[in-house]
Amino acid sequence: MDAAVDHKLFLGGRLKRLRRELALTQTAMAADLGVSPSYLNHIERNQRPVSAQLLLRLADTYDVDLRRLNSPDGHASEAELTELLADPMFQGLSVPRHEILQLADEAPAAADAMLRLYRAFADRRARDRIQAERGGAGLEDTPADRVRDWIQVRQNHFPELDALGEALHGALTANETGENVEILARARLAERHNLTVKVMPAEVMVEWTRRFDPHRRRLLVSETLGPASRAFAVVYQLVLAEHEAELAEMADAADMPDPVSRDLLKVSLTNTLTAAVLMPYGPFQRAAEQTGYDLARLQARFGVGFEQAAHRLTTLSRPTARGVPFFLMRVDQAGNISKRYAAAGFPFSRFGGACPRWRLHSAFRTPGRIITQIIETPPQDGKPGGRWFTLARTVDRQGHDAFSEGADLAVGLGCELRHAHRLIYARGLDLQNPEVTPIGPACRLCHRHPCAERAAPPVDRPLTVDDWSKSVSPYPFSGA
User: What is the pLDDT of residue 93?
Assistant: First the structure.
């Protein structure tokens, strides 16, 4: 029998947290669900799996989204704790897996505290190493991590922003003039907001790719931006002009612990809404399904870049019109990870780099070409190992000389193998008996796989303040 089908769900810790949030005793919840208190007690202690019937009763009785019970909900996961304990500083402790599971499920606050402490230690160790090697200034990554985690807990899906994006796209294209969205957005900025757009020479913009001049009511964009990036910059300004209040309200509601994180989240939400205008949910999801998720055709149809289209694919989680649940990762040539998002549960490494056996790193040898690979990850969070269909391609960094060293980034996109038949890139492959490459999500854990003898890529380094907005903004001004 297929492992995914035969897999039993042990959700005791999460069920217990739900019961406590509802302020119910075991007896009261058992009565609501039509089971005995002793049976519910066994489930909460992970001595019995949760049945499908009980999950349906939970959803019906307490109006619970079942995905919430089967997701980490922002708490430290087994994978993160296992990776943490694989650090050489814990050598010799040999913490058994059942204790890790018990900590993650039954003491989530303690697990989070342990994870937060380790992050602070790992960041300090990374800063000390970088300072010793390069004499660099201190590095901080807390705001970017907080924003990225907040987005990932919501599986990178924001229905309210999708609705606003579809409405604004409809308003722009209502007259069916045939003009592209950038031209229509420029006209709306001029007519409704008295704001003009001007393309400026690179030597004037210096390191800026876009800049808003509030005194002259002008948006200045660099000539180095390609058509897709320029369109994104223009629509971004239109989104701020028309929906800044809603975006600010969402950022405030997230209750970020510091102003920098809150402002960074607002930037990310603005990027998300901009993408929802350029690639409105309904038309984009239908086009993706009709074309077999052909990124080149999606780019051409919506006038966007490869990375913009790829990232939009990770957001298609509308219950009535779901797309393939993709994950995405972006790295530079040194192996530093600057972006990772997922609509599915790909086991991203928190403290390590991507496994070198994943062809994401090989994309730099074939710039601009899509390469595919089927990978297998080890068991995580009590779930069996997964198989994933992946593709990777390089994109150019906007604002860099195309021939300068290190100017390219590689974007990796993937989904569970069971969805691969829906992708044009998998046609002609034997998906029933595929050639699979085992990888580890973090190289410290790769002792399970043959790549253990290979040198690990550089660590997923903490980001500088200058990196923050680029690292968490889902849709950079990339014209690739």
Answer: 79
